[in-house]
What we know:
The protein is an alpha+beta fold.
Amino acid sequence: MRLNHKVDKEAAVKTREVHMIDAARQIARERELDYPKAGLFDIDGVMRGKYMQRDKFLSVLDKGFGFCDAVLG
């Protein structure tokens, strides 16, 4: 099971600059991530997320997914 790619400053910057769905899709495929993490920041600024299988993650990019609304305050 591969949760994260190797530590790479260039890759980390590239990940932080993802603003389009196609870029997220490309990174998940290029890095062959088995379980990418999808998430959001709660009202206190804490990231809340969940790992999901790559196929589910790619599907979520197009269709969205449920997330507990209590996280948003």
